[in-house]
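Example 3.2
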Amino acid sequence: MWKAVEIDNWIAGRKSSLEDVRTAVTDIIDRVQKNGDTALRELSRHVKLTEIAVSDEEREAAYDDVDTKIVESLVEAEARIERFHELQRPRDLWLEEIEPGIVLGIKTTPLQRIGIYVPGGRAPYPSSALMCAVPARVAGVKEICACSPPPIKPITLVALDIAGVTEIYQSGGAQAIAAMALGTETIRPVQKIVGPGNVYVTMAKMLLREKVEIDFPAGPSEIAIIADRSADPSIVAADILAQAEHDPNAACILITTDKTLAEKVGQQISAMVKKAERKDIIQKALENSGFAVVSTLDEAIVASDSIAPEHLSIQVSDPLPVVTRIQNAGAIFVGRYSAVACGDYAVGTNHVLPTAGYAKIYSGLDVQHFCKTSSVEIINQQGLETIGDIVETIADAEGLSAHAESVRIRRKNC
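Structure, written as tokens:
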């Protein structure tokens, strides 16, 4: 179960799982585009779906089915997530006089309507509801619609309500992504879709990018751990199992300079799996997992950057030099006390992160994902005189005489 792996083969396995479902997802998208709500009902295999939209009364009733302590914890988590994301909020407008007569700036505008996907097939994920909706609300998005597999658990409904979601729909999988991107009789199209999901959800987001913007590919969970002999085998094993229990397609890899540590981690995993509640899921995920022994931390850093993991845990005796050199990771957890689970729930950072190596080019979900910007130029007569010759010369060189004339006529009429 716990085995040595080749880094390149491990990476290839993460990519292939997405391509395996391309044809099936394409068919689902076509069905939703042609048949709308009917397709959503037909594709809801485990539940006979009558009403797609969740009513306000159902939201309110959900609170009666959730323990008060859980509700309070969700409220506290929401506040921490909001506090962190408030630090990211850009100014609505900033202007600066770059030189006499020329004022430049940026106007930031929130998107008007976005969609969030909240997984729910194997377990409810109220935390994902908070992680997706709170930064959108902080950014100033007015309409936040959410889709989640039916029947949506009361705890997820409560979290969506706490997070300020305006519309909730019972639809999961690739069909939910298609519905938010293309629209149906019940669900109006959105400008952008965010949120994690399985390989079907992730592939649907990627295929629909011509119709709607997305955050990034955020598929089955993964973790890489860089560790030396100072790491605690039980803590490393616990972090591995915590990610493995998400999904059979989750994947975990330990990159270590100490072969003995790898062996001890394997022993801990074997003992812990026997007691795990989600044992079957963990065992399947561990088939996608393993360890790689390297000679130095320099090699470990290179290996980790080639993987570009969703979560990177650094458990070495002197971690900060490693942190400063890492280039590709969705989120970095430093030291033995920084459990990835803290980032999943309550520390305030966002747990919606790029997977399958996409951390090489994407950042995790934040407030900026829900904003767009426009440059602002304010030029007076003095400023036009300062740059007029430059504009006219380059425009004439490009053969765009009307461009040059649009400046020349202003200078003549001053």
